[in-house]
Amino acid sequence: MEVKGEIYRVAGPVVTITGIKPKMYDVVKVGHEGLMGEVIRIVGDKATVQVYEDTSGIKPGEPVVNTGMSLSVELGPGLLESIYDGIQRPLKVLQEQMGDFIQRGVTANGLDRDRKWDFKPTVSGGDSVKGGDVIGVVQETTNIEHKIMVPPTVSGTVNEIKKGKFTVDETVCVLSDGTELQMMQKWSVREPRPVSKKLMPTKPLITGQRILDGLFPVAKGGTAAIPGPFGSGKTVTQQQLAKWSDTDIVVYIGCGERGNEMADVLNEFPELEDPKTGRPLMERTVLIANTSNMPVAAREASVYTGITIAEYYRDMGYDVSLMADSTSRWAESMREISSRLEEMPGEEGYPAYLSARLSEFYERAGAVHSLAGFDGSITVIGAVSPPGGDFSEPVTQNTLRIVKVFWALDAKLSQRRHFPSINWLSSYSLYTNGLADWFTENVAPDWIYIRDNAMDLLQQESELQEIVQLVGSDALPEDQQLTLEITRMIREYFLQQNAFHPVDTFCPFDKQYKLLKAISKYGEMANAALESGVPMSDIMSVESKDDLAKVKFEEDFEPALNVVLTKMDEEFAKLGGK
Amino acid sequence: MTKEYKTITEVSGPLIFLEKTEPVGFGELVNINLPDGTTKRGQVLDTSAETVVVQVFEGTGGLNSESGVVFTGETIKLSVSKDMLGRILSGAGEPLDGGPRIVPDDRIDVNGASMNPYSRMPPEDFIQTGISTIDGTNTLVRGQKLPIFSGAGLPHNEIALQIARQAKVLGSDEPFAVVFAAMGITNEEAQYFMQDFEKTGALERAVVFLNLADDPAVERLITPRMALTAAEYLAYEHDMHVLVIMTDITNYCEALRQMGAAREEVPGRRGYPGYMYTDLASLYERAGVIKGKKGSVTQFSILTMPGDDITHPIPDLSGYITEGQIVVSRELHRKGIYPPINVLPSLSRLMNSGIGEGKTRDDHKAVSDQMYAMYAEGRDMRGLVAIVGKDALSERDQKILEFADLFEDRFVRQGRDENRHIVDDTLRIAWEILSELPETQLTRIDNKFIDVYHPAHKAKSE
Fold it and tell me: If you write DSSP's letter for every residue of B282-342 in order, what string do you get?
């Protein structure tokens, strides 16, 4: 039964209602047009609602209906390949219903009610099931088998189980107590889905980006932040991660960002191939697009919508990566709503609960043992857009306290077209040690040594550069000049990576290893030659050194590299020395 | 007959407070009849069963509690028609040129609705502006929003006008229009724009909205929305490619701050309201191309950075929304270089989709990246030379230092009416100056491009 109340006051997206007694976070329908909103404060007989749509023309006195439900998402087959707004309305359906511009008052189901899925049961009558258990499977896309799970709060004995083609809201299983289960379940977005146990992350997320995998790896189930001023390449990095990460599922949240950028993603993803499976990337992707000019309250919700979908796939035992671009816009939406509520502001006008909300969100990442006993993970990578590129602002600082990996984007690097413009001195990863065993086993025993050595040289370079700034590089001793040359090679040949180059955009780990090893080989041979008295100018004019610059662009990397390495051996042999 | 209320209880800055009204819609347009017979207009900011808050566009001067308030029952709308082309309107959409009122084909809510990202076409049509630093290194494409970040006393208006005159899509004769929105600029500046429009005949295909420095600040918040509504109408109903020039975004943000303060809102950074990002986004995001429609809206706004500070909230928030920025540099201006565009902090995010084979030329991106890298290094070198002298530099470094000078002198500098063709001029000049560098330094350019386009190789093969 629906209870009706009425609108008392309208001030932008914040509406005060009276006459009904909703619970906190209940979803209400506001006004004659039934705009969707969420209760965020209750004072006496009045309640404050944040409305997810434009409130122009809405008057006091219009009716309000409480749905009695909190903001939930629909979970079931059909999520993949979907493009949603912040409150899980499919953008495609919205376009069909109201054209190219988003009008208000339109509801649309997150999952298509007409599409039939081929349900194959995996339990039989008499089996007892508990929350999280799999009762059947559906082939959602070519490579993703969607496991239909018992909702976490339900358990019992299977009385009846069906087989065949069904829509998401048709009953496929009946438990002995009469509970009917459908392929679709609903889950409140602000509540984390339960797991049986959280695990320590032990495997790296392979992204194909040399500076990320090589120097600052993130673990599957870990958390990373990419802060950077505008124009430093946050979005390109996020999109590269969404494209090339070796996870089963990708959830990409465009939160308060540019419409044209989202259009680009929407256009490009269906055409790109997943390097692992050769299928279109879209088949493993869920996109959530709430651009900067879409309602601010829906922007606030978009992050929760995304992570809940991610948790759902994690519960099936998949590795999920979630990209949120940008968490600053999300924080700003909290600030905007908080200020409309006339709450006491914290730092820089952000609400005092900013830190709590950020940590709650990042804590929903992790490698887990699901209720049904599968191992799954969610890796969360959040972009941060600090005002003026100043990392001391509240969102960056509160994020850094939580995340384990920090990829610091640097406007200076992007200005000189060093991409990805991640600063190798200020970035860090706390997973480096935890993942060391994996790297030694799966990449090469000497990988850790080569990497640490490169990092060490880069550190030395920054000190040497200070001297060079004062006296010029010619004044340095020869061995230090050589160090500068080697670090230049590391920077230009290894760290720089062209996201728009068909070959260089994705670099397998094996290639990363060989490339860095080749640079390190030149370093060793050059140092040895220098010690044995070969003049610096001869070492610098080794041609194979310059040839190394372009091997990363070669389609046939290995043969090209071997040619260069053989040439390098020959050239150094000719140089001789004592 | 709409009811007139005489229940004003408070007038504070641009706001009036009323009591005991019938239910009033949020955002409704309001007419206020003053005792002296004049009428002002306003908009509902906050509405409840007891109190209604109205912001008055033309200022509250002359208002008193005797004034009558009429709620129109509709939100702010602009009368649009194709006849708007060639007209000069006030910041609130009223004719200023002595001509008749626009006979509306339609009346459209000026706030606009947000474009469904699913309906957007990723912008990819190269627009040639004839300015090398834009075409060559920070390419503008149709449907992009690319502002000029400038400072007081710099020639941003000249640059904007040069672009308005020269901008075109190569090999296309599609209908083209300019919508010009002046927000709080001086009469003199407005005259400068108008004269240029008249002289070049651009006025015939332009719609001009003028909110000058002495017009009410509140009206300034409506002006860009009026302009964008007109632009969207021309683009999506009449298949025109519309270039919207908005100047000056800084004045708009000042008006926003002023209104925020009048409403006693909790201020954000430097006193600007916390929702400034969302508010600016509701302007900038109205650029774009829609699948299946012929027209497009491209934005080229001017923003003067207070104190040349790019981290100031106005340029900062803009930079996070717009698809890049063209930064005008005081240093280059002092050197006498026009247009004084500093390419290093400038950026066009959509450049990659607008250039390359079939659009400009296959080597475009590589050439641009190479020039960026070398120019950045060359500028650093200048700092070093100031300390150690030129002779202390290695031969390679000296070449790069010279490149930076060449770049500014030949690539950046050009005439106020010089309309450079992308391939025949801009890329040719680029290769000419790059060929002054040792070939081994061109690490960002594929050998196959060097073979084809490098002047030395080109000469050999010919």
Answer: HHHTT-EEBTT-S-EEEEEEEEEPGGG-TTSHHHHHHHHHSSEEEEE-HHHHHTT-SS-EE
Contact B281 A60 (CB under 8 A): no
The 10 Å Cβ neighbour count of residue A571 is 18
- pLDDT tens, residue by residue, B410-457: 999 999 999 999 999 999 999 999 999 998 888 888 888 999 999 988
End-to-end Cα distance, chain B? 83
Quick check: helix, strand or coil at residue B225? helix
C-alpha distance from residue A119 to each of A60, A128, A132 (Å): 48, 19, 17
Task: Confirm if A276 and A307 have CB atoms less than 8 A apart.
Answer: no
And the tokens for A369?
A: 């043992």
Tell me whether residue A576 is exposed, middle or buried, using C-beta atoms within 10 angstroms of its C-beta: 0 to 12, 13 to 18, 19 or more: exposed
**How far is A532 from A526, CA to CA, in rounded Å?**
10
B27 in Cβ contact with A57 (< 8 Å): yes
CB atoms near residue B261 (< 10 Å): 14
Size of the A and B interface in Cβ pairs below 8 Å: 228
**Interchain CB distance below 8 Å, B313 and A387:** yes
pLDDT at residue A23 tops 80: yes
Q: Is A550 within 8 Å of B344 when comparing Cβ atoms?
A: no
Spatial distance between the Cα atoms of A569 and A564, rounded to a whole number of angstroms: 9
Say how far apart CA A546 and CA A550 lie, in whole Å: 8
- Per DSSP, A465 falls in state H
Distance from CA of B46 to the nearest CA of A (A): 5
Band of residue B1 on the pLDDT scale cut at 50, 70, 90: very low
Q: How confident is the model at residue A561 (pLDDT cuts 50, 70, 90)?
A: very high
Phi, psi values for residue B425, rounded to 5°: -115, -65
| pLDDT averaged over every residue in chain B | 90
**Pick from B25, B384, B397: CB nearest A59:** B25
pTM of the model: 0.90
Q: Would the CB atoms of B119 and A95 count as touching at under 8 Å?
A: yes
Cα distance between residue A256 and residue A86, in whole Å: 10
Rounded to whole angstroms, the Cα distance separating B323 from A560 reads 38
Using alpha carbons, list the distances in angstroms from residue A74 to A116, A189, A374, B436: 16, 10, 22, 62
> What is the token pair recorded at A498?
């062209």
Distance between CA B273 and CA B260 in Å, rounded? Answer: 6
For A332, the closest of B265, B277, B316 (CB atoms) is B277
Query: What is the model's pLDDT at position A578?
Result: 42
Q: What is the C-alpha to C-alpha distance for residues A405 and A428, in angstroms, rounded to an integer?
A: 6
Structure tokens at A48: 């404050």
Note the pLDDT of residue A2.
58
B86 pLDDT higher than 80: yes
Model pLDDT for residues A484-497, shown as the tens digit of each residue: 999 999 999 999 99
Percent of chain B whose predicted confidence (pLDDT) is above 70:
99
Per-residue pLDDT tens over the stretch B168-197: 888 778 888 999 999 999 999 999 999 998
Antiparallel, parallel or unpaired: β B176-185 and B241-247: parallel
Element of type H or E holding A483: helix A478-489
